[in-house]
UniProtKB/TrEMBL annotation:
Comp. bias intervals (Polar residues): 147-166
Alphabetic keyword roster: Membrane, Transmembrane, Transmembrane helix
Residue spans crossing the bilayer: 43-60, 67-85, 105-133
Protein name: Transmembrane protein 18
Organism field: Gracilariopsis chorda
Amino acid sequence: MNDVGPLELVYSVVGNVLDSVQQAAHMHSISDFIGSVRWEEPFIRGIIGLQFILFMVAYVTRRNDIVQFIILSCLTLIALAAERLNDYGRANWRHFASQNYFDRAGLFMLAFVCGPFIILANFIMIGMFLRLVKLYAKRKRREAMMQRQNQNSDASVQPNVTTFSGATEDKKND
């Protein structure tokens, strides 16, 4: 048996994952990646513009659950189709870009498409969760108010009460 502790095993696995990501990306740093992108290219500007528009639509419609759900569904479908979109982009990049951004590892799709979409999807989910919490709190306050009203109405009108002398009388609490 190896004398490898759990911490050394974790460091080894993390090191292997980081090495494979670095080899797959063929980039040594984020600045190399950012420097390799032609920011004036219409394809890149179109992707950034689409993301900006989606973020603005999500912000403007933040209180409309139906629109938020539709946006979230579209973002999820695009993220699920990212591998196929990357393959399509790698095969047809000459039609819409001046250089091939689509590597086999999908770094471009992750950084420019899926990453921002996942961030937006998380913002939408957090917003939906906060609205759900507020709605639940409102419902619980309404239920507590209804219970208090029911208790007050039950206490204010009591049935006939028999006195010690055996006679009955109506009693009302104000």
